[in-house]
Design goal:
homodimer; 41% helix; alpha/beta; 7-stranded mixed β-sheet; disordered C terminus; Aspartate Aminotransferase, domain 1; 2 domains
């Protein structure tokens, strides 16, 4: 049967770009992590117990009970656009309803903007480590990638961006995550934001700013996103997935009004540019509920979980591991000692310790392998207790891995994963 | 301000294909038709009063009340896939759950399959008159289009398909609507279905079968769709938009299991391949409700509306107009006398008579202008009373138009739109 399938598959001519398709690590994880006995720190999932299910249920009932056309085609929700203008003001961004474009989530935002901006074999400027979902978006275009590094404290290397642009390159766009970078957890410094927006303006190269996590900050209200620094060259992508619920598949783009008619055509071709039941439900939710309270609750709980993870890392991880403490978002990026291959470690972790994370390698663009000893950990999904247990299990896996290495290569004595490493030794900036 | 916008727009480099973007007639209509005083026979909208709103509300409340993960990411709903296998059996198609791929509606089904199959500047085989939404899907690929005609009684010209394939052309796929063709209203004859499936098999060219309307039939249960004639070369697209509600944005594809992993990657890049709240709600709806009864109610009411429209056309339209009576779907295609330009007529109709339809020209591929005197009328959206009034208004507009012509060109005397034409004179096959 498998043979038949394979033979048959070879007969169907798929588009050329599909030859490079491999099932994404992220998607594999989605299935791995659904086994109940595995503690998954892998995916960027929200905490399910914090979903405002009752409030959403009331909102859905309100929509269906009061509007005969609630399941009908119709223009994207004007009410929701208005509410999003208010949300953006909280992020320090001034915009108006005619600059809001509703999407089926941040991923669709990226997909539609890429369709609008990128030619086949076009050029994109992106960080060396970046969100895999974005990499999937551009893959069918078989693009030419220009990459820049990311500083672990101040974010994207904006000087490198300038060097690329000043040398004459004109990418179709720059992809940036200014807050709660996925996977690195870092936020772009205020100075770099201003400079990056300036470069976009000066060189007429738009920035796609992916702000899926920007509302989840744990310190003071952060610097406004790049869109706060330029309203013509920054196309901002927002999402309700992390602040309300991913299954609602709703998000938005803030972009110059002049681009919206063309973007509507792109969306219409993709899935019909119509008000969805989810859009209408979210709008009704905002009308009836105190969203600020909900958001404050998310921030409070995720901050606790972040701190729990940081403390557990300090307690359990080997003393030569390094990580940052994110001010925004849901990920911690951990750099293990250079001899550890995080992909091999993951196999040990899942098989022997029943714990999952994503190896840093998965996020590298252009096959850059300098992240081979890194891993991305999520702290939003699991309860504090499971986070502690998960970190302990990964530490155990590291111990097993090193033990295996020492047996194989006879390089080092076995060492305890729960050793006495003190937090002071680590880079926690 | 407008000048500034225009100047600015010229500075942003959009993808090359976007130069050919024009706002679609269909989308313009969506906005036109939302003015309450216009009777719109334009769009393929379901009747809002037939939406099972209470049942959907119960289903949504059930999902949100009983499942903590109801708003979470998760694999596409396995329960819904199982229910779709049952639905497909009603269409005379045998398939299994592993061949079902869930989408955000038929439009997304087309968009994803095209991404999977079509190279930039690739070749597609399509009818000369076809669904505009499909034309929008392929436009970014700037494809080479091979076209065939459509017989008003038996559907797509399958001999012409054979001629194209036997001459050596190998399109990436054939796009076909075997039941309730949009815009022509025709269904493919059983003989042609068998032959077309045979050709796909013989020449190894897949068919994308768009079956958005196939469940809405008004006579005996129709011949199975093309997917019933071949399970390897026909990729079937279904939708809940016309049988439950468009705002749910849910549909499915039936295709060979071997293609699903690649299609999952394509969807993940597009909008994350996850179970949506709508998918879960529909699955709960199917568990709790009698969908067969709902569907029977839709068929009964839409049949009444179709008959109302046909009778009104017979009563009110000029004697030299022609139309078919569709056995499936929601559209009637009308051919007016050759001297009438339906696009010009639409302007008169909207402005003077407050009634809307879609000019046939909008559906032509490759700029074919042989549909200039045709129009597409929808009979699912308006009540029978409004359908009668709408047809009378269009007839009045035709009178005005001819009157205008006669004044302008002095070719003919003014004639009444509600003349004595008898139904016997018309082609109603």
């Amino acid at each position: 049967m498998l043979n038949t399938c394979t033979q048959w598959m070879e007969e169907v001519l798929l588009a050329n770009w599909t030859r490079s398709i491999k099932r994404s690590e992220l998607q594999e994880m989605l299935y791995e992590a659904s086994t109940p006995d595995i503690i998954s720190l892998a995916l960027g999932l929200p905490a399910p117990e914090l979903f405002p299910r009752e409030a959403v249920s009331r909102a859905a009932a309100h929509v269906l009970g009061n509007d005969e056309r609630s399941l009908q085609y119709g223009p994207p929700s004007q009410l929701l656009k208005k509410q999003i203008v208010g949300l953006m003001a909280q992020r320090g961004v001034t915009c108006h309803e005619d600059q809001i474009f509703l999407t089926a989530g941040a991923q669709q935002g990226m997909s539609l903007l890429t369709r609008l901006l990128l030619n086949p074999q076009g050029t994109v400027l992106v960080e060396e480590k970046s969100y895999t979902g974005f990499q999937q978006v551009i893959e069918p275009y078989q693009p030419n990638l220009l990459t820049v590094g990311t500083d672990s404290e101040t974010g994207m290397d904006v000087s490198a961006v300038e060097a690329i642009l000043s040398s004459g390159s004109r990418p179709a766009f720059i992809y940036a995550m200014s807050d709660g970078h996925n996977p690195l957890g870092v936020s772009l410094s205020a100075q770099k934001r201003a400079r990056l927006a300036e470069l976009a303006r000066a060189y007429r190269v738009p920035i796609i700013e992916d702000d899926a996590y920007g509302f989840l900050y744990y310190g003071d209200r952060p610097t406004p996103p790049l869109r706060g620094f330029d309203d013509q060259w920054v196309y901002y992508i927002g999402s309700f997935s992390k602040i309300l619920g991913p299954a609602l598949r709703s998000g938005w783009i803030v972009l110059p009004e002049a681009l919206i008619p063309k973007l509507s055509i792109v969306k219409e071709a993709s899935d019909i540019d119509t008000a969805t039941f989810a859009q209408r439900t979210i709008a009704a939710y905002f009308e009836a509920e105190n969203f600020e309270d909900h958001l404050a609750g998310l921030r409070r709980e995720y901050k606790t979980r972040r701190n729990t993870m940081v403390n557990a890392l300090s307690d359990k991880f080997p003393s030569d591991a390094r990580w940052g403490i994110p001010e925004t978002g849901v990920f911690i990026w951990v750099e293990l000692p250079a001899e550890i291959d995080a992909t091999a470690l993951l196999k040990v972790a899942i098989k022997k310790e029943r714990v999952a994370f994503i190896p840093g390698q998965s996020f590298t663009v252009n096959g850059d392998s300098r992240a081979g000893n890194c891993l991305r950990l999520n702290f939003s999904h699991c309860s504090p207790g499971l986070i502690e247990a998960g970190i302990e299990r990964i530490a155990e896996a590291i111990g097993r891995y090193r033990n295996g290495l020492s047996f194989g290569a006879n390089r080092m004595p076995r060492q305890s994963a729960s050793g006495d490493a003190s937090p002071e030794k680590r880079d926690q900036a």
